[in-house]
Amino acid sequence: MSLFPQKEPEFSQFLVREYFRFGSVDRVLRHYHFSLPVSPATYQRVLDKYGVIKTAGPNNCISETILFFEHLVKDAADIESIYRKMPLSFQTSLKTIYRIFSYMKQGLTRRVGVALVISPFDNPHKVLLAKDISTPSLELGKRYGCLSLPMGYSRKRDTRRTGVMRILQQEVFTDLVVKNNFPFDVIPSHLEPFMYLDIADVRVAAYSLTLPKEMCSLSRFSSFKLEDYHFYDAYDVVRGNLSLRLGVQEAVFGYLRYLRLVKRNLIANPLQDSSLVNKELATFTVDFEG
């Protein structure tokens, strides 16, 4: 019995769903031992037909470096002793770790990301969070199911709209993309980040989106990266009583500051902040090779 649909449009929808599941065409083809009756070029055309914004590069190494520095701060140890404890699956070189640490000490970034603070139409003080169900790394202190904003990596050449669409497709409306019914109208015509947040060596642009009434049902939201969506009170998030992914508390705190500025009719440049890990590592003294 075939492992995939034989007819259209089910086969194309299957390809789109598997792309979001595995993150790249190559990974899908390798998972099915290259038995799918589709070439890489045809697969890409199917994704284009469904309006899929492609994944922004190999993000696993970036994620593990962020987790490395969380572990470093938690243990108050030196870089090399932490590095020696890393599992064989840890891919980032020691030289790269030192280089990223140097960037963080200098307040520099080399990668970019996007975070979305999504609120329902009737309450701007509610924000959409969901459990991060991506692969845990217990050796690095990454627990399964931490609450996260829709948040991921971007490309420096991306337009703001492209960056926001990628996160909406991958972490909020995956099933709607598969059904070729992505709600383009939830993205405002004018996009301006309310905040830039530095997490490790990634500068994350945070955007505020307000969903119309018809898109606020929790059953609308789907992803292979997040689950159990809920609109949380923003003040509960910043109080720190929830198990949160790195950067979420700082982003929501910045969002509340932004709302206060809007209420006072103040026009300001995007807020600037750094994650708690960045701030704590700024005080570390480590000898390293540049």
Detailed description of the structure:
With 290 residues, this protein is an alpha/beta fold. It has two domains: 10-49; 110-275, Nucleoside Triphosphate Pyrophosphohydrolase (Alpha-Beta Complex), CATH 3.90.79. Helix content is 38%, strand content 17%. It has helices at 10-22, 25-31, 40-49, 60-75, 79-84, 94-106, 160-171, 174-178, 234-238, 248-263, 276-281, and strands at 111-120, 126-132, 147-148, 151-153, 195-199, 202-211, 226-233, 271-274. Strand 5 and strand 6 form a beta hairpin. It is globular. The relative contact order is 0.16. Mean pLDDT is 87; it is low at 137-142.
Main features:
Nucleoside Triphosphate Pyrophosphohydrolase, three-stranded antiparallel sheet, 290 residues, five-stranded mixed sheet
